[in-house]
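Comment thread on ticket #2218

A.B. wrote:
> Attaching the input chain for the structure job we discussed in standup.
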Amino acid sequence: MESPFKPPLTFLDLPLSTEFGDGDIAVVGLPFDCGNDPTRFGSRLGPNAVRQASVLTAALLADADPSPLDGRRVVDAGDIALPLDDIHAAFDAIERGIRAVLDAGAAPLTIGGDGAVSLPVMRATRRRYPDMAVLHLDAHTDAWPLAGNDHYDNATQFTHALNEGLIDIAHAIHVGTRGPVNAMKAIGHARSMGYEVIPFDVVREWGEKKLLEHLHARLKGRPLYLCFDMDVFDPSVAPGVATPTPGGLLPADGIALLRGLSGLDIVCADVNTPTPVHDPSGATAGLAAAIATECLALMS
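C.D. wrote:
> Ran it. Output below, let me know if you need it in another format.
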């Protein structure tokens, strides 16, 4: 007799499992945000909003040939239980959870949570891939100066990543940076640390073909950590993010850019900052589900 009980809603209706094997891909929810912004918070609700939105994405996968789910085992590991009042304890829990995926020989696809969660994910991934390159698609560098030794938030994770030696800085690239007028202060600081920054106006000037040629030339042959912050999109199409910044990508641009990364060795993908409380329409969560599915297709 078929059981009347169904497991919790999972991404793309994947099986729910924390049993990882070599070659598997595990979707991991990271329900955390720093909660220190007086107006834009709630990214902790992102993972489940993306799972709910992925129901439609899963239905559309019936037309995919090949499907990103073909020929490999992909599971949803659920959310890592995180304290919301202790960022260090939350980071430790995230690192342990992602290490469990990697130690089994599987690859993590994480859904956040605000951008702060990228730091413990990078800590875990670097243990397995010490020469890890980084591609960070975001309206912001998230590499701001530190106010002190214990300054951790969703704008400093790439500063800490460099200070902790987590990444190969010679192959670490921020793409899409912009501001209400410009973001030259943030761009200048990131560049002073050794990051390559390709601002959004340069993305537009170069066009898709030149940008992808550049990224392949710089990143090919290296284990790559792909970080996709949903605010790289224009807020007209993705209003439910932590820091909406006008003048960004449209969905077709973002999807084409991701598809153009095919052939790079993506060992971990991180889709963060969907913030459903600021988007009752669900458009941002739906777009994040599509982006996470595109990332899944890249992680062969």
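A.B. wrote:
> Thanks. Noting for the ticket: The domain at 23-298 is CATH 3.40.800.10 (Arginase; Chain A).
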